Amino acid sequence: MVQTSETIRKDNPQKALQEEDEVTARAKAAFAEIRAMAERGEFPEMTLDEINEEIREVRRLRKERNHS
């Protein structure tokens, strides 16, 4: 069965949505900060490979949390 926001955490769907909202809000804030840095000509101290690895790790943790 494909997991969606409706099928994940049937025991407490409100908690799952709240957790997702918090993660999404933090991710959007981080993206906005990186974008602002780029517009100012500043660059993060991470390489593109390191940034991609961080993204993969967050996705892995989300998947793990949603399948628990």
Could you characterize what this model shows?
The protein has 68 residues and is mostly helical. It has one domain (15-66). The chain has 2 helices and no strands. The protein has helices at residues 13-39, 48-66. The radius of gyration is 15 Å and the shape is elongated. The two termini are 15 Å apart. Residues 1-22 are annotated as: Disordered.
Question: Layout of SSEs?
Answer:
Blueprint: H1 13-39, H2 48-66
Contiguous low-pLDDT stretches (5 residues minimum) are none
First CA to last CA: what distance?
A: 15 Å
Integer tally of domains: 1
Main sheet? Answer: none
The radius of gyration is 15 Å
Topology, number of strands: 0
Q: What would you call the shape?
A: elongated
Task: Estimate the strand proportion.
Answer: under 5%
Features:
68 residues; mainly alpha; 2 helices; 68% helix; elongated
Condensed summary:
The chain is mostly helical. The protein has two helices and no strands. It has helices spanning 13-39, 48-66.
